[in-house]
Amino acid sequence: MTLDLARWQFAIVTVFHFFFVPMTIGLGVLVAVMQTLALVRKDETWDRLSRFFGRIFLISLAVGVVTGIVLEFQFGLNWSAYSVFVGNIFGAPLAIEGLLAFFLESTFIGLWVFGRERLSPRLHLATIW
């Protein structure tokens, strides 16, 4: 029974993660293109669109980060025997991805969110690309 519950929990979190991560990647490119068009064409419509879809992007990113962290904990908690078996090969890349991606994402997203009025328009655009 416990194994079935662990499998269901892992499956549900994985489905959420695999739904929100590709959506976040697509929205990131979409927002970057919209913001580029707003800067190049000096069109307020593209800027408003990039702000609107940027909010959706941030929500999707937050859900993707949360589900990713939960997945990493589930590897150790629910699948500890599997983690011991593949830990030498699977552990290091997972830790690097968890730390490096999280810190890079949060740094540049923070610059993008809070730097709209503080950074130059070109530098602000570079933070989303």
Could you provide a short overview of the structure?
The chain is 91% helix and 0% strand. The protein contains 4 helices and no strands.
Low-confidence stretches: none
Mean pLDDT: 90
> How much strand?
under 5%
Structural class: mainly alpha
Give the % helix: over 70%
How many separate domains? 1
Helix-strand string: HHHH
Number of β-strand runs: 0
N/C terminus separation: 46 Å
Question: Cα-atom Rg, whole angstroms?
Answer: 18 Å
Morphology: elongated
Number of helices: 4
Biggest sheet, in brief? Answer: none
Could you characterize what this model shows?
It is a single chain. With 129 residues, the protein is mainly α. It has one domain. Helices cover 91% and strands 0% of the residues. The chain has four helices and no strands. It has helices spanning 2-41, 44-77, 80-114, 121-128. Helix 1 runs antiparallel to helix 2. The radius of gyration is 18 Å and the shape is elongated. The N and C termini lie far apart (46 Å).
Can you tag this structure with a few keywords?
single chain, mainly alpha, 0% strand
